[in-house]
Predict the structure of Polygalacturonase.
Amino acid sequence: MADSFRFQYRNSNNFRFDYKRSLSLLFPSRWIPLSLIWAIGFILIVAWQRTAFDRFWIPPRSIPSLRSLVFNLTDFGAVGDGVTLNTKAFERAVAEIRKRGGGQLNVEAGRWLTAPFNLTSHMTLFLAENSVVLGIDDENHWPLMPPLPSYGYGRECPGPRYGSLIHGQNLKDVVITGHNGTINGQGKTWWIKYRKKLLNHTRGPLVQLMWSRDIQISDITLRDSPFWTLHPYDCQNITIRNITILAPLSDAPNTDGIDPDSCVNMVIENSYISVGDDGIAIKSGWDQYGIAYAQPSTNILIRNVTVRSMISAGVSIGSEMSGGVSNVTVENLLVWNSKRGIRIKTSVGRGGYVRQISYRNLTLENVRVGIVMKTDYNEHPDEGYNPNALPVIEDISFNGIRGQGVRIPVRIYGSQEIPVRNVTFQDMLVGITYKKKRIFQCSFVQGRVIGKIFPKPCENLDLYDEEGRLVKKSMSQNSSTDTIDYDS
Ligand SMILES: *[C@@H]1O[C@H](CO)[C@@H](O)[C@H](O)[C@H]1NC(C)=O
Ligand SMILES: *[C@@H]1O[C@H](CO)[C@@H](O)[C@H](O)[C@H]1NC(C)=O
Ligand SMILES: *[C@@H]1O[C@H](CO)[C@@H](O)[C@H](O)[C@H]1NC(C)=O
Ligand SMILES: *[C@@H]1O[C@H](CO)[C@@H](O)[C@H](O)[C@H]1NC(C)=O
Ligand SMILES: *[C@@H]1O[C@H](CO)[C@@H](O)[C@H](O)[C@H]1NC(C)=O
Ligand SMILES: *[C@@H]1O[C@H](CO)[C@@H](O)[C@H](O)[C@H]1NC(C)=O
Ligand SMILES: *[C@@H]1O[C@H](CO)[C@@H](O)[C@H](O)[C@H]1NC(C)=O
Ligand SMILES: *[C@@H]1O[C@H](CO)[C@@H](O)[C@H](O)[C@H]1NC(C)=O
Ligand SMILES: *[C@@H]1O[C@H](CO)[C@@H](O)[C@H](O)[C@H]1NC(C)=O
Ligand SMILES: *[C@@H]1O[C@H](CO)[C@@H](O)[C@H](O)[C@H]1NC(C)=O
Ligand SMILES: *[C@@H]1O[C@H](CO)[C@@H](O)[C@H](O)[C@H]1NC(C)=O
């Protein structure tokens, strides 16, 4: 329809031309300016109509039926005016879907204010184009839940924590998708209250699914979460694809994008994340609570993701990793205008391990520190942590690291207690901005470099040629880069 209208519009130009010429033949020359004004007026009206047409007359994308039973949120009395509280409508809809053994809930265009609600199994939540699920920003509407067992505490206050805006426990086969509709946590009020210490409980995530499996989250936008944005906890088989996660880059505390936490078999791909903390942070519980809960995060693939993070890092592992993190592949990751590219963070007391982590084709555009490993991230739930619980960090490989405008490309600080073992660097070429001698910083690191890399690696690493033959064995794995420059 739009095309045929544009065609008409083009014709109207020709029409104007012909019309003017015929006018000048028919009328004396003093009529020409008048006919010109008329023609210009005509064009302006047509142009205005065309904008109006585009704005008002392109029909909304129709919503596909992805399950045999489909409901609209409005069937349950919801009003999308941004003011009416629709919690009951969401609850009634979910109850109906639960009763019927599954179904799809369409959230149509509009602004649907709600307090937290639960999903159910075999459910698809479909967020239509221009639909916004708005989280109410008054904490009195947010239910409290027991702390996560692997954390022992709310993450920022002892005792219970606020639940998530969209929540689910022990579910199977859950899909949240749409035509890029939005779930908006209206986090600003929460961030301000948190900073002013007006909250007595840990803030809630935007979307949290616990002890669930077969989850797909795709083609939607998540924004302004009060706390972590998307938090799959002790879940299996999760696909997150083609989503956008947004929060302000500063003054939006703890708005991590995605926190895979004690999760197995997970893919995160084709997504854009720009938030006020880590873009993605893989976790598995906190100190003695995480060690006791003992559920690792494993078999995680992150690919074709673009991240921006001015406070923390593009993709992190930890710092809560006490259940262990293994078999993680991060590939085709772009981190731009950020503080750090990737980071592994842990501390004494965590226990657990971080191993079999492979980074391939990492692009770092204007980041201060590219690759970071930090073993003194001393944030503990309480004094009951075990100082002898030492995490293991090993078998980490980097292949294909590119970038420009990077200040410190590598900073790996193992320690006497937590040395970093078996790190491999291959095919690295990063443009730097900082002409300091030690920009590949290491301490307590054992590993190797295969072939030539830039910048020149620290002396802690063994050197191999392209064919994998040892060229030079390091005699100083444990030496520390002299200038520790935490500031940059
Ligand atoms: C849902 O709304 C759409 C239009 O927005 C309509 O075509 C469809 O019939 C409605 N479905 C139900 C189950 O009410
Ligand atoms: C949501 O689920 C949680 C956990 O299963 C439960 O405690 C809570 O009562 C549920 N809320 C509603 C409104 O059903
Ligand atoms: C990604 O999401 C956008 C917006 O919802 C959509 O237009 C596009 O088709 C999606 N791409 C894929 C590959 O699904
Ligand atoms: C989806 O919406 C977000 C926020 O409005 C926008 O930034 C993003 O580009 C959109 N995604 C696609 C694929 O259109
Ligand atoms: C926090 O606790 C204090 C003291 O018990 C109480 O006065 C205040 O209203 C509480 N604030 C919130 C947001 O619940
Ligand atoms: C994983 O979940 C998807 C739905 O999200 C499902 O189609 C698929 O069969 C599941 N795979 C396994 C191995 O359970
Ligand atoms: C990578 O993700 C973007 C969306 O962020 C998408 O447009 C593009 O098609 C994806 N590339 C591949 C190779 O899947
Ligand atoms: C590691 O994870 C990938 C998915 O990213 C999976 O295909 C592979 O089987 C896993 N490897 C092992 C040894 O479990
Ligand atoms: C490397 O990743 C970038 C995105 O960061 C992508 O554009 C490029 O195609 C990838 N290269 C290969 C060889 O996959
Ligand atoms: C070192 O790590 C690589 C993976 O990066 C692995 O293939 C290799 O087996 C490890 N070497 C040892 C000695 O564990
Ligand atoms: C370096 O320190 C680690 C642990 O602190 C130790 O196991 C290793 O033997 C030391 N290596 C050398 C060459 O001194």
